Amino acid sequence: MKYTSIETQKEIPIYIGENILKDLKQYLSKLDFDKIIIITDTNVNKLWSKILSKELSTFKHDFFILKAGEKSKNFKTYEKLCNDILDKEITRKSLIIAFGGGVVGNMSGFIAATLFRGIKFIHIPTTIMAQADSTTGGKQAINSKHGKNIIGTFYEPEFILIDSQFLQTLPEREIKCGIAECIKHALCQDRILLEELLNKNKDKNYLFKIILKTIELKLNIIESDRKEINEGKILVYGHTIGHAIETLAKGKLNHGESISIGMICVANISYLLGYLNEKDMNKHYETLNYWGLPTKIPKEIKLNSILKQLNYDKKFKDSNIELILLEKIGKILKNKNKIGIEITENDLKKYLSNCY
Fold this sequence. Notes:
Helix content is 44%, strand content 20%. It is α/β, with parallel strands linked by helices and 356 residues long. It folds into two domains: 2-169, Rossmann fold, CATH 3.40.50.1970; 172-355, Dehydroquinate synthase-like - alpha domain (Dehydroquinate synthase-like, alpha domain, Up-down Bundle), CATH 1.20.1090. The protein has a four-stranded parallel beta sheet with strand order 4-3-5-6, sandwiched between helices. Strands 1-2-9 form a three-stranded mixed beta sheet, covered by helices on one side. A three-stranded antiparallel beta sheet has the order 10-11-16.
């Protein structure tokens, strides 16, 4: 599998399979580099770093370990990591391996994009979220006090290696978090996939099948509109409100849980505006509840705080906010062939009051 970088027209290979980490040396042989920097987190380091190090035994390599979790995706950590990596006397020919979930992937990609104005990097994602969604498309970012993924750029890896063996050590909550992104793609693009997601199975092969289908759906979007000018806005279904909730939850909700709530919010808005029928709105609840994902805004997150956060994130423009809504399961709402409906701040407040 592969996709094409818009900026460079370079094809980005995606190597997918079971136990294909053993083929890493073969894939690396196609690249020109002098040493390897591996960025991972505390969880993945305990479980998998020795195995990766063994596969890289013929290469000069160093590990740099982040504290697991979204709180590490900030400028302070970015600056420290950059300096620590530079202390190892890397060059413009050095290679970064992002070995972990979405936080590690985003941080590693942003570091690779900015050190020496850009050095090579690859993704080896270890979570459903990272395998199915966050590593494809070239979006690299870190968080700011002003919101999630505010500081970032587009920068493509040399390749992505997706190995199903990493799924076997994922905790229950991390599985649900990643499945939320798969549900997003199903709701927006593929009713059949949504039905498959209602036959829950924790088996690694089932999860990998869902991941592969989700990747295909995402690649269909990014090949045509990676920078989310129109069709690509499908990728942020539920994310505008979900990101605000995630920020306000201060670590109590992970990304998947937050966008689960965000998707329920926009489904309700789609229904209240007369675009989405009640059956398809309820399908949101059915699927997300089935996977044990939250479907209500926590009571401690006040409505005015959400609106304030959305303003803080610069989501409002002239007192309006653009939301991605559904016409029906598998079909995004379009207005004159453009995706995105503007809602006033007062109307949004009224609609969100139904989501507690």
